[in-house]
Amino acid sequence: MPHIYCFSPIEDSRSTVLILGSMPGKASLQAGQYYAHPRNAFWRVMGDLIGAGTVLPYESRVRRLKSCRIALWDVLKSCTRKSSSDSDIDESSITPNDFISFYQAHPRIAHVFFNGAKAEACYRKYVLASLSDKFKSLPCQRLPSTSPANASLSYKQKLRAWRIVAQLIGRVDNKKIRSRIKGVRNFI
């Protein structure tokens, strides 16, 4: 099984929202781009939410995320995996990214979203215990995976759940945000 490594984060000092995947798939690793698989809905979702869709070159999508104060990264720094599937990650090979340094360098991060169940599970298992109370208390929420393997939800259902990200960067009233987050929990 090949040992693989994640990309550097997409971020800037103004980032307030962090979206975490687990580990880039084969298409992404080959392209050197986050969510490069043509059937992964991540960039389509970002296009509908913030105008960072696949009609733009990758570099423009990255700039758009940054301008909207969205950081993008993966929970895992490295692992071995025989396919692109999260279920094929060898748990004994996992090395998580350095979130202590990341959060210290990005003190404005106020919300963390997981692109699917594996990212959330790995964060909770390999990262959370190492964080200070300040960072442990960040609101964290799993959203439906944008992976084509998550075929149980339609694109419209995924987009509806992911709207919370656009609402947060739009500075929607916190009561509405909490209500939406509860709704997303019930949705998944």
Features:
alpha/beta, 40% helix, 188 residues, three-stranded antiparallel sheet
Task: Write structural notes for this entry.
With 188 residues, the protein is of the alpha/beta class. It has a single domain (3-187), classed as Uracil-DNA Glycosylase, subunit E, CATH 3.40.470. Helix content is 40%, strand content 15%. A 4-stranded parallel beta sheet has the order 3-2-6-7. α2 packs across α7 (155-169) and α7 (155-169) runs antiparallel to α8. Mean pLDDT is 88; it is low at 171-188.
Précis, in short:
Helices cover 40% and strands 15% of the residues.
Topology, please?
Layout: E1 3-5, E2 17-21, H1 26-31, H2 42-50, H3 58-67, E3 70-74, E4 76-80, E5 95-96, H4 99-105, E6 111-115, H5 117-126, H6 133-136, E7 140-143, H7 155-169, H8 174-187
Parallel strand pairs: 2-3, 2-6, 6-7
Antiparallel strand pairs: 1-4, 4-5
Helix pairs in contact: 2-7, 7-8
Q: What is the count of helical runs?
A: 8
Strand content: 15-25%
| SSE arrangement, N to C | EEHHHEEEHEHHEHH
What's the number of domains? 1
Which topology does CATH recognise?
Uracil-DNA Glycosylase, subunit E
Strand order within the widest beta sheet: 3-2-6-7
How many beta-strand runs? 7
CATH architecture: 3-Layer(aba) Sandwich
Tell me the distance between the termini: 32 Å
State the helical fraction.
25-40%
